[in-house]
Amino acid sequence: MSQNPQFLFDFGSPNAFLSHEAIPAIEQRTGVKFEYVPILLGGIFKATNNKSPAETLAGVKNKPEFMKIETERFLKRFNVKPYTWNPFFPVNTLNLMRAAVAAQFEGVFEKYIEAAFHHMWVEPKKMDDPEVAGKAWRPPAWMPQSCSPARRTPM
């Protein structure tokens, strides 16, 4: 019995966005379908006493330049569009990820994923600000209120 590969993602990760952009071609080439699994990357870092590369690599000589070269190689290899750096990084994605889980239950998960990545890395916004998130999500008719990351109350 074969199992589809899982793609564990957090909208706050630029590498998750780039991987998301590469996945369709991989699925087409291999015939496998990825299962998207929303996670809280910051929670994983905290639970494992780890930090994001943005923190751990800060101040390391030549590391930002190397990471830029590696990103360019990835873009070329997988023929994906580059992201626009989110000037509000890091963004607390707790509400975005909670809404992703709600979107799974509401049957709008794929549309939600595209929209959330768009607002984080294509037309970057401060998506942890409820007012900004509320404006960004208007007026997607496909999105039930339960999926709005601008909600101020827990789901």
Describe it.
- This protein has a single domain, classed as Glutaredoxin.
- Helix 5 packs antiparallel against helix 6 (109-122).
- It is mainly α and 155 residues long.
- The model has no long low-confidence stretch (mean pLDDT 87).
- The protein is globular and about 45 Å long.
- The protein contains seven helices and two strands; from the N terminus they run βαβαααααα.
- The protein has helices at residues 14-30, 41-47, 53-56, 63-78, 94-106, 109-122, 130-136; strands at 6-9, 35-38.
- The protein starts with 5 loop residues before the first strand and ends in a 19-residue tail after the last helix.
- The chain has a two-stranded parallel ribbon.
